[in-house]
Input
Amino acid sequence: MVGLVVAAHGRLAEELVSTAEQIVGELPAVATCNIEPGTPVEDLRAKMKQAVARVDEGSGVIILADLFGGTPCKESLMMCQRMNVEVLAGVNLPMLLKANSLRSEQLSLPEMANQLASHGQRNITCASALLREAQQPRT
Amino acid sequence: MITLVRVDNRLIHGQVVEAWLPFLKVARVVVADDEAASSPLIRAAMALAVQSAIEVQILPLSQVDFAALSKDGVRTLVLLRDVASVPFAHAHGLALDELNLGNVHFGTGRRQVSPSVFLAEAELTTLQQLADQGVRVAARAVPAEKPVDLPDLRERWAKAG
Output
């Protein structure tokens, strides 16, 4: 199974995983990295490595980071070079839920990462506009 | 064909859309609830939440043809807002092998029997009557959870007093 690491500023990573588990139940092979203010980069790097190692079962790991260019993303990108790791920036709840369900399909790691990026974007919609459209009479 | 009957105050929401629908692989969701059926806004919002390949019907409880739903070949999830609706549906032809308690919210006079289920004494009595008729009653918010069967729910209810 592909491992998942959610890495984000503050407690976002932990809360995203906790919320996903409220919705679909316990998520296997998932780790979180909270980046608190003032954490030295060396400590963060070590935490990231530990998180990846903890969930790596041999099929690779996808790191879901919050901000492109942010520290969690940058440190994740450094690991891409040496490990079987893909990095997504802009993690959201639909993306995390989809990551869990996609793991049961036979996708390569890069393919899974690309599908997740699309899914995360596709699920950002103006919900109220969709509702208005749904209530329009058909012409 | 009834695949599952679920009591859930929230009817169609995240746990149903993200967990139960993929798990059950149903082709139809029927919400039997007067309040939801009476609001075009709620009906539209609920229908939007479900992928378009799955049919969504939102009807007042008394207008659902439970007997027909039970007899045809379409895999169906039936959602009811409260425990009190279950005997009515059952009496009107709903095939009921198993009753899933998802979210029954806290309220005055209710006691907690699982993380997301709070029951009043009258509801516990209703559930026992259903169980006496052969229905397997269990609390289970999401498929990944282990179900908590009625004897355990009853025991927890008694202890919570």
